[in-house]
Structure formats: C-alpha cells, structure tokens
C-alpha cells in the first residue's frame, strides 16, 4: 500500500477555495481551512469567509500522484522545504482541524514579545504545539510554527 502524505500547494491569490473545490472534484483529498472575519468598508460592515492559510491549500496524495494537482487551474506550485516538497504530518493537520472546529482564537498569556515561545494546549489527542512569536501588533501576534513551515496569526 502506498503512503499518502499531506503537501502544501501554493495557489494564485484569492483562489484557494476554487482550487480546493476543483482538486476535490478530481478525487484528491483536500483541506482548506476557512474562518469568518468581520470586514469594514467605508459604507458597511460584513462577515466574510477567508482562508486561514492565504494562497495555500493542503492536499493528501501519494508521491507518484503529485503532478495531478497541476491539472487544476489556479495551482502555482508546491511549497518546498530544504529542496523537497514540504510534507505536513497528519498530527499537525489534526491540530489545525481541531483548532478550527473549536473556534480557538485566544491564547492565555501575560505579555507577549517577539522571540517568546508559546504553547497551545488542549487540542484533543495532541497535547501541545509550540511556536515562536515573530511579530506583535495590538491584539494580534504572528507565531512561526516551524514544524508546519508557516506563520499563524493569533488573536490575543
């Protein structure tokens, strides 16, 4: 039996959902986490759904099937790490799914400053996930999750 891995696909800007739908339609296992945000224009406020990972979609497939994603319009390339397509562990996908399902947005901290390591706890079977604070602005901080190879924005 072939081993299936999760890979990160880079998409054209603002086409994550369309790419995910198209990949799913050709039989590829896809995960594109979406969150709801309140956006304000000069004349109104509106709730909009935006991807958690801008210009990225996660796909689960065998190594030999990696080129199938390029059959879909909107796919740009794979995300690479150390010269190889970045592979995301199943546990990391589970943490992301559980965090999205629980609506987890707040991390309990006293003060956050750049360079701090923070732990997120209590996501089901996965005990803890660590990340390093890259930037802090107002009530948001950007945390680097090295195991995933990207930066996550947290509301604090």
TrEMBL record:
It comes from the Bacteria. Keywords: Transcription. CDD domains: NGN_SP_UpxY. One of its GO terms (biological process) is DNA-templated transcription elongation. InterPro entries: NGN-like_dom, NGN_dom_sf. The keyword Methyltransferase does not apply. Pfam families: NusG (PF02357). Residues 5-96 form the NusG-like N-terminal domain. Signal peptide: none annotated. NCBIfam families: antiterm_UpxY. This is UpxY family transcription antiterminator. The lineage of its organism: Bacteria, Pseudomonadati, Bacteroidota, Flavobacteriia, Flavobacteriales.
């Amino acid at each position: 039996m072939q081993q299936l891995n999760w890979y990160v696909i880079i998409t054209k800007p603002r086409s994550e959902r369309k790419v995910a739908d198209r990949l799913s339609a050709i039989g590829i296992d896809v995960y594109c986490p979406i969150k709801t945000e309140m956006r304000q224009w000069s004349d109104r406020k509106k709730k909009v759904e935006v991807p958690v990972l801008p210009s990225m979609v996660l796909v689960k497939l065998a190594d030999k099937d990696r080129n199938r994603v390029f059959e879909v319009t909107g796919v740009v390339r794979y995300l690479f790490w150390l010269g190889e397509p970045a592979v995301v562990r199943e546990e990391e996908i589970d943490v992301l799914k559980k965090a999205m399902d629980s609506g987890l947005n707040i991390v309990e901290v006293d003060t956050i400053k750049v360079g701090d390591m923070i732990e997120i706890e209590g996501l089901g079977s996965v005990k803890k996930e660590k990340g390093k604070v890259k930037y802090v602005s107002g009530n948001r901080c950007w945390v680097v999750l090295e195991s995933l190879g990207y930066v996550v924005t947290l509301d604090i």
